[in-house]
Fold these 3 entries.
Entry 1:
Amino acid sequence: MKPAPFVHHSPHTLDEAVETLREVGHDGKVLAGGQSLIPVLNMRLAQPAHLVDINRVAGLDTITVTDHFVRVGATVRHAALQRHDDAYAVLPVLRQALNNVAHPAIRNRGTTVGSIAHADAAGEMPSIAVLTNAVMEVIGPKGRREVAAGDFFEGPLQTVLEADELLEAVRFARFGPSTRTAFLESARRHGDYALAGVGVAVDVEGEGSDAVVRGARAAYVSVTDIPVVIDLTEVVAGQRISSSWDGVDELVQAGIAPEADIHASSDYRRVLAAELTRRALTGAVS
Amino acid sequence: MTTETSNTTVEVTLNVNGVAHTREVEPRRLLSDFLRHDLRLTGTHVGCEHGVCGTCTVLVDGDPMRSCLMFAVSAQDARITTVEGLGTQDDMGPVQQAFVECHGLQCGFCTPGFVTTITAFIEENPDPTSEEAREAISGNLCRCTGYQNICKAVLRAAEIKREGANGGDGA
Ligand SMILES: Cc1cc2nc3c(=O)[nH]c(=O)nc-3n(C[C@H](O)[C@H](O)[C@H](O)COP(=O)(O)OP(=O)(O)OC[C@H]3O[C@@H](n4cnc5c(N)ncnc54)[C@H](O)[C@@H]3O)c2cc1C
Ligand code: FES
Ligand code: FES
């Protein structure tokens, strides 16, 4: 099918984008990469009267790496962040997760910030936002505000963003030097939405085979309504990096509530998420 | 100020396969429909219109993208390459040549999306492993071939391109 008619707005500056959203946001949508929105329009699951296309807004397509975070602007494509070597060097979990986001043709157009604003529980980057304690930079008619990732997601496809607000950028916080990360997921084909996925951040003390785990956190894809972090520290602290991660299974399975669909039952997903967590922990520390 | 707003029709100029085309269209005109209906470039196929099948894939400034998930208005300023721009029957590009040699198609419905996707892939990775070749085409569906010959065609296309680059006889 084809989208219903809409008015297309193409602001060139952030001020114009904010002003346009103030005027039409209540009856419109932001158009970023369109890789989630245009399918919805094509199927006429939504018929917004206005689209505020942010692709030509100057200055939104930048990636900034500082001592504390990696800041990603609203029109940075998944593929640009995935290829960014400086971002990878300081926060490898970004690329580790982006390798699993859709297929190259979708990553070339879809934006990382758009996928976070979209808040699909099957999306990888909302989980990475909570795993890294990211900060959402929101701009709207009332000015700027910042929202912690943990407070941003309200439900499936629902965030605290108002209809007239724009997610200008996301700042993914860097981990300390002793933290190692990994991302693992299981999908029916590479690039498809995951049956279950997990990103882990493991804090390790010492080097080589003597190294000991101080703590670990894990964030999930496709097995919770909104991205959640499970703190695994109580069961992994003090374990060697050659650990078989006793106790992790129980903690993970108790902390998630996967839904069933034609691809997998809820129980299967729960077991899968726990197993992926153990493998990701091993992957991160080895 | 410079905010552009449009609801009825807009004049859209697109550079497709090196030629500039101007048409008056509604903003909701998908790039895929602009190519097929307005420009009559029917090499680009349309299957699902929600990004899943990949047959509508074109190159936007060299990068593969779904033309069913872009509006024509958004594609102005970009260089669009469709399967028609990648060779002719008498002068095929390396990927088209490899599809012929490896029998990489049956009905051909999926082929334009594979040809554009693989063209960009071997540009970035001139000597892929068969594992990488499989991953490169994981976003494109084919209901006929069973993919084996398409995977072979990816490797063969890379080979033809390398031979060409080394001054050998590419075709
Ligand atoms: C075939 C296919 C497979 C896919 N597989 C995956 C996958 O495996 N994993 C995954 O994570 N994603 C996947 N995606 C989705 C893809 O990652 C999208 O790019 C992403 O979800 C949305 O980003 P976008 O820039 O395309 O946003 P759009 O589609 O433009 O927008 C999505 C929504 O977010 C809103 N929005 C976007 N940007 C902003 C902003 N800056 N401020 C406020 N609101 C905003 C829009 O109004 C809209 O409601 C897939 C898509 C397709 C078509
Ligand atoms: S028609 Fe565009 S991906 Fe299927
Ligand atoms: S050859 Fe028929 S769909 Fe691929």
Entry 2:
Amino acid sequence: MTKKTDLSVTFCGKKMPNPFMLSSSPVSNSAEMIERAFEAGWGGVAYKSMVTDNISIPHPSPRMHAYHYGEKRLAGLQNVEQTSDRGLKPNLLDIAYLKKRWPGRVIMASIMGFSNSEWADLAKACSDAGADMLELNFSCPHMTVEGSGCKVGQAHDLVEKFTATVRKVTGIPLVAKMTPNIADMNEPALAAKRGGADAISAINTVKGISEIGLDDLIPRPDVFGKGAISGYSGPAVKPIALRFMAEMAQNPELGLPLSGMGGIETWVDALEFILAGATTVQVTTGVIHYGYRIVEDMIEGLSDYMALRGVEAVGDLVGKALPRLHETGAFDVKRQGVAAYDLDRCVGCGQCYIVCRDAGGQALDWDAKKRRPRQTQDKCLSCMICSFVCPVTGLISFKEMPRGWKRRETVTLGR
Amino acid sequence: MTVSNDLGGMEEGGFDLDTATAEAGRCLLCEDPPCSKGCPAKTDPGAFIRKLRFRNITGAIRTVKENNILGGACGVLCPTARLCEKDCNAKWVDRPIRIGKVQRFLMEHAWATGFKVFGGKVFEKPARRPGKVAVVGAGPAGLSCAAELAKHGHRVTVFEARPEPGGVLRYGVPAFRFETAFLKKELEDLKDLGVELKCSSPVAEKGAAERLLADGYDAVFLATGLWNPERLPGTRKEPGGLFTSMDFLAALRQGRRKELAKSFKGKACAVLGGGSVAIDCARVALRLGSRDVYLLYRRSCSQMPAEEDEKNQALREGVHFILLSQPVGYVADARGRLAGVRLVRTRLGAEDSSGRRKPVELKGSEWTLEVSAAVEAIGYKPVDGSQDWYPSVAVRQGGLIRADEDDCRTSAKGIFAGGDIIRGPDLVVRAVQDGKTAAGSILQYLGEKATTRPGERCLARKP
Ligand SMILES: Cc1cc2nc3c(=O)[nH]c(=O)nc-3n(C[C@H](O)[C@H](O)[C@H](O)COP(=O)(O)OP(=O)(O)OC[C@H]3O[C@@H](n4cnc5c(N)ncnc54)[C@H](O)[C@@H]3O)c2cc1C
Ligand SMILES: Cc1cc2nc3c(=O)[nH]c(=O)nc-3n(C[C@H](O)[C@H](O)[C@H](O)COP(=O)(O)O)c2cc1C
Ligand code: SF4
């Protein structure tokens, strides 16, 4: 029988069976949906962001646009979605239902207010409904009113103020959700901490334009002739999200638990966030692309990884890559290497030759008869771009050269 | 097209991680995947392809292996075009996912990376159970049953007549399609599961199966396969150079290639039959260096039971198909060596019981095809007298054991049977499923046995 690995984590004092959560979005829109997600194995949920019933926020139509890259579908996803489609009341009833039916899973209610009193009302209502914790949405990129959405996240005093407001009305843990549309996430995160936040979640969507129609000249999504800069998510944003994760995790002054998201689809992505400092991870676009079922592979993949490496608890992995993350200035540049070729497996496409010639060190010659590259080793810059385009993984690998090995100077044509 | 003359190893390469990932990338990740309904052994390609896609490779390997201890063999040998790949929805976009090859890749990847489903750090040994089961025959059916019972903690001993395990996989299928090294790696899992394998141990005396029960085994699974070749009727004296497919292929897998080459190299030869085994024999003959290989079949090409891709492959490699021709006898030279095959032309008449139009011999059309070697590949049946090994077990006319494929129970209490010995010539994957079905029935039987006190009749039997 397969060994059962314990994937449970404790986040803000709440234990959950695994670190995998749905992030606040259409994938967590109702109890009916979330219940199916729990059945599939998700450990918790950030419920779709709720606002008060004071104002109605109608949705643009269509709401989303896909960014396909070559034959790959949904490398990124752009959306102009607003907060929950549903009224506050039905959402609160759903939260209460979920809490009763699924006491072992974490229900985090995401809220967004437009004033101090709205933040307080929402926080109180959600706590009363039984939410385990609150996610304060300081990061929605589609709010045009000053003092709302990511406009709050960009103004640190507002982050502190609203967090403090919420802190006053409820005792349950507060998770402040950050926008990546800033230069330094530590500043708003620290402001949230000052306001009384218990944890930080990030990232919300990155502002972007995914595509422009060439016939109609309309940036997408085409909302009846108009486009807008709006939230971009999915695999394409993962490196950006990981960066913010690590920067906050490395900041001793912050010292809050983190919930990471942005482009997670597989257990490998999830584990990278954990290694960069996240205690829990959240997913939207992966579910929009494939459905709740992807959590099965996250659970099995992470379980096997831990069993094979003898790791006992997910918590032991949190931030484990951080000691190896440095400023570029810390590199030992005396150590140098080259791209090494295992030509037995070469298929003869010549892409390495093209990119080395036009973007690398001109270190390759092309043997047209044999259809093989020939490397002049001391011209290799070790940029490794040849290995990125090579269709055979591992054919081109990095090899360290002995100390004192010197690279040839690039030819100068001018005088 | 020239063919390789290396008969020692598999000719068709497998996927590597890049190509397997690319292939998995084409999968549509269907709802209610049709591929997962097409496997006689209940393999779930929809799940293992998805797992590969989501980088859960260990999980993908587990999905295959836990369900089918011979997942690698099936990945290589299954006629996937009419099983899992038949209804693959990717064919409406482009072409079906090559599911068999992805499955084979997963097994080879496990071996290459040292990942074990039934051993190592991700496996928890099952609690020991008291059952003790004897399996007769280490072919796909026997091995699959043994693995399944061992997974449940029972002690299993496999008795195999031949020196090595594998059945047809070891002594039948030519190595250019399925090599011994691959089989050995696949069988590691049985070792990990603690299955005891006794080779060169035939269970072939009168009443031998019943004796196993008397000797303390709680149940017996008979999976002896078909090791008796059908013969062309009316051949009185065997000319030199005439082989049965069984002897021919077994000799090859026993390393007697040089000896065989003497009869085939540079010569014309004939293979009688139109099934997969006949195609295998013809392709081996080519690889032994035959100048001309004639496949003799009494019906039309479309009626040949061999798989489409096998037929095409044989034709491409240069096998000559002589269709609508019924072999009726042999011609020998003065020294008793084969000189030719006598053939009668046929035409197709009315449908027979198999639903195919029946060949009718054309009077006066007999002719002789000059060949100096021939292989008869016209079917397999149970060994003569094999029912004496298990006299309490009811058999059909012809010797096949009477057992329902739904439960693999025989007429004798405590004796179960599966694989070719209950079905007639069939597929590896069906033998694997029989092994699992039988294991299920045996588990049930052991449970019944344990809860049935002596003298008490066993009533409980789940519907
Ligand atoms: C040449 C050839 C090619 C084939 N190619 C394919 C293919 O490509 N794909 C596919 O799906 N199927 C193929 N088949 C069919 C497939 O091999 C069989 O359906 C399958 O092997 C049946 O499994 P089994 O376990 O019932 O029997 P077997 O494989 O026949 O195994 C029976 C075992 O029992 C042993 N045994 C017999 N009597 C005794 C005894 N008294 N005591 C102890 N041991 C005994 C035998 O030595 C043997 O090891 C092929 C068959 C042949 C002959
Ligand atoms: C259609 C859509 C709607 C979203 N709605 C919300 C929301 O209401 N509240 C919120 O905090 N984040 C919202 N998000 C952001 C996601 O929760 C998440 O932070 C972001 O998409 C990055 O993760 P991903 O790459 O896994 O999608 C939304 C994202 C999408 C794609
Ligand atoms: S039927 Fe084909 S496309 Fe659909 S899940 Fe199975 S392999 Fe993938």
Entry 3:
Amino acid sequence: MALLTIRNLTVAFATASGSFRAVDGIDLSVDPREVLAIVGESGSGKSVSMLAVMGLLPDTATVTADEMTFDGHDLLHMTGAERRRIIGREITMIFQEPIASLNPSFTVGFQIEEVLRLNMGLSRHAARARAIELFTAVGIPEPAVKIHAYPHQMSGGQCQRVMIAIAIASNPRLLIADEPTTALDVTIQKQILDLLMELQERHGMALIMITHDMGVVAETADRVIVQYKGHKMEEADVLSLFEAPSHPYTRALLAALPENATGDRLPTVSDFFGQEGVQ
Amino acid sequence: MTDYVVEGKGLTQDYYVSGGMFGKAKTVRAVKGIDFAVERGKTLAIVGESGSGKSTLARIVALIDHQSGGTLTIEGHEVDIARHKPDHVLRSKVQMVFQNPYGSLNPRQKVGDVLTEPLLLNTKLSARERREKAEAMLVKVGLGAEHYNRYPHMFSGGQRQRIAIARALMLNPTLLVLDEPVSALDLSVQAQVLNLLADLQDEFSLTYVFISHDLSVVRYIADDVLVMNKGECVEQASRDEIFSAPKHPYTQMLFAATPVTDVEAIRARVAHRKALRAGAGA
Ligand SMILES: Nc1ncnc2c1ncn2[C@@H]1O[C@H](COP(=O)(O)OP(=O)(O)OP(=O)(O)O)[C@@H](O)[C@H]1O
Ligand SMILES: Nc1ncnc2c1ncn2[C@@H]1O[C@H](COP(=O)(O)OP(=O)(O)OP(=O)(O)O)[C@@H](O)[C@H]1O
Ligand SMILES: [Mg+2]
Ligand SMILES: [Mg+2]
């Protein structure tokens, strides 16, 4: 059975110029132990649809769906207590902008230890030890020193790794990773992806990975969803997607890899659509 | 004589960090003596390990932070922001796109105001001209005039990144320091932004210092590449040299760790995973 099932999810924002549909009828499901990658245009509703799952959208957003369930629990109509039991524990998220999602007023150590004490019931002492273990696992250098640092005293990629450590601290059953390696060089990116895949195999964790990096998709995903302007364009297993992308947008996206630059210009999706005569 | 827009000599940066409740405060040298020079109209790309000091160096070059040691020269003049605060001419000449666009945008300021403010402070353009320029810039980075009245939190990560780029370009800077400017962009929008930067460089001889961990982007945009590791420059060469014959082991490791989109490799991985599953399920 699928762990997370979403049917016909729509998110509309009230804006000064009227209502704007950021997500329009998305279906999605993920099984335990599965890696689902979501790729697609910037602004196509990837983050918004996952924030809807987490219940973290602002009041200006209207969320509707025919179904949105996690392990049989209705995420749309649940009590506050039930929500607190699931969100942040069984489902956690690595947010796209790590520096902005850490609290600037507390040390990074305090922030992860708080999660460990509240969610995992660890003592202060045990939480400190576990925090250092997690920081080591995500490759933060000198973890016992860095634990005392405030977010602004860490590099972009170090903050991103703190965020990852916090998200895996409670052994979630579903991890939603929104561009989790954007600030990491390829060597550390590899270490992090290996770690996520290991957790996923070991605990049967399901992973939804939003990324624009086709290399990351190629090296981690089982299945891939391609999004464009709030709609799902294509869904395929990873091999079929790279071997024989069926939707023109997917083909265009793959053609825009910088490796494919002709002369001194990079191809964009609209160049490609122009060539293929697609609108 | 070569026309260098920016030159750094022996640049260092020290940070003071407390050691927590019982630890002693200590100094950490995040940048350990970097030399570089960028000619007008050229692009220097900086790559390197996360935490190796790239943003720290970028903040020095963009006149945001004062270095602990070494000298920085902009268009032939030594700049020491600790002694002389840069005037607004110099400030508008040197612009920076920060790694964390959210943190660098004022949450209470509408995007239109974000883009027109530098024009208001530094030019004599009328309100209407300022608005037209800002709207045109939004279109150039793949956004639209309909975004003019929105606040920063109403955008996606990649859209905010493009707003930060648009803001930095509003004043036609001479030197633009870009810290992971396309890291949140899908390939197509990334292509559009990189093409825009290339066009502006051709037209106005803009000089870029471009930090990126994406080697395919670096290969496209860079003239020269500086590789950092643990605060030091481990290798510096022309793009072609670095890509055809990387010398330092760290540079070689970077190339080796780059993920591949090769179909055969994917087929092998998928098969391996299936086998693992079958084993685990039995
Ligand atoms: N609070 C908001 N009010 C109005 N519009 C919003 C708000 N938040 C997001 N949007 C819009 O919703 C759309 C989808 O945003 P979302 O963040 O999901 O994009 P994304 O696919 O994650 O893009 P990226 O790859 O750039 O992160 C965008 O067009 C964005 O401008
Ligand atoms: N304000 C600060 N106080 C103390 N240490 C700092 C401060 N800012 C950065 N550092 C440390 O200096 C080192 C270099 O940081 P910097 O942000 O320059 O790295 P980076 O190369 O940009 O990394 P990334 O690719 O992850 O963004 C890191 O170890 C970081 O923790
Ligand atoms: Mg997003
Ligand atoms: Mg940085």
